[in-house]
Each structure stands twice: as C-alpha cells, then as structure tokens.
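Minutes, project check-in
Item: structure for the 252-residue chain
Input as provided by the requester:
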Amino acid sequence: MSTFRFLVPSSRIEQDPVAKKFIEKDGHITVWGEGGGRQFITYPCRHNKLVNVVALFPEELAMPDPKDLIIKRTMLKLYSDFSQEVKALMMLADKVMTWRLFDVSSLQPWSRDKATLIGDAAHPVLPSSAQGAAQAIEDAATLAVLLRRGTKPTEVAHRLGIYYGCRCERVEFIQAFGRSVLRQSKQGRQVGPLVPYVKYNHIVFRHDAWAHAEQALAWEEDKVRWAYLKVSAAGKFLRKGVGIAVASLQGK
C-alpha cells in the first residue's frame, strides 16, 4: 500500500463551498472508502488550523511520478469516482507527497547494556494504527519512571529489561491491529467487525503508561526485597543452627 499526503489550511477550506464540509465540526476524523482498497482520511492539526489528508491506495493502481504536479494529477485521476467533497479538497492541495508503507517487525531486543530505542526505531507502527507518535510518548513516559532520579548506573541495564517487559506486548498488539486494518483496506473491505475496533480503542485509550511502569517497578523492587528477606532469614536460621550445634559439641 501507498499513500498520498498533504496539508490544507482550514481557512482555505472554509472558502470552498463544497470542501468546507470537512471542517464543520472541530476535532473530527473523517474516513471515506470506495472499491479497490482506496481510502480517504482527514483529521485536524494545530488546534484545527490545518487539515491533514491521507489517501490510501494499493501500489498496483498507480506509481506516481515524483514531480508535484504529476502526483496531484495522478491522485485526482485515481479518486475520480469519489464524492465531490473529496475531489474538492484534493483540488486545494498545493504540495502532494507520496509515501510507500512498509511493515517492519519489532527489533529483538530493543536495548543493549545502557542504550535503548523508543518509538518506530524499536517497534515500527503502520499509520493504520494511528498510534506511532503516541507509542513513542508512552515509551518515554515508561523510561521516565524506570530511570528516575537516583537510579544507579549499575541498575540501568536491568531497568531497560523491565522497560521491554512493560511495552513489548502492548505495541505488538497495536502493530497487529494496524496490519489487520491495512489488509482489510487492500481487500476493499471498508471496516471490519465492530467488536475488534471497540476492544482496540478500549485497550489503547484507557492505558496509563506512567502508572503501569510504576506498578512494574514496585513489583520488581518487592521481588528484590523479598529475596533479601529470604536470604537474611536463611542466614539467621543457619547461624542459629550452627550456634546450637556448637553448644551441643561444647556440652559434650
């Protein structure tokens, strides 16, 4: 799959009687779909001052020339059967870029010694997940908790292992969902069953990365504390046992 991408100022869209439908409600995402695996997605940026446009299409349908005017011409032709609103918004594009989408698995592992990766460098997320930047922020929040002030240099490598444990399963779930959405789009299916989308939104938007990292760190510290107590108790028991044995020998 590939995408056409461009930005249009909301003030310019407002002047177009057909395209202004896209800015009638602040903060709304719109998704238009037709046959052939094509989708047209818009959402606001910069406090609703810009509208970002993403037009998905299978690569076999078109391979645009890298020149701006040719790209726009190819885009308009490829989406000529879409609604008048979509075509009106496309006409407002000044600079259209085209991007190929690549699905890359997470690195294994993300860290080495005291160095680590975050975001797409560690676990690339397809734009169909709509979570690339968000997951990088969650990574950073997790590291802020685990590598808080006072962390000893000798603790860093182990803490990065906890970081991986906190984040790996979650980002792999998000990656898998993005692949599924993109596969459906390529097959020409507009949306999948409602339940997976509801579950996805629940898992994604109700997660507190900071609290999750604090819980993981507290659990790890408790394990260390219990291990110390067990060793300490075993030592006391051993010393007591030795004392009893010595006293017994002395009594003889």
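Outcome recorded: Residues 191-195 have pLDDT under 50 and may be disordered.
No further action items on this chain.
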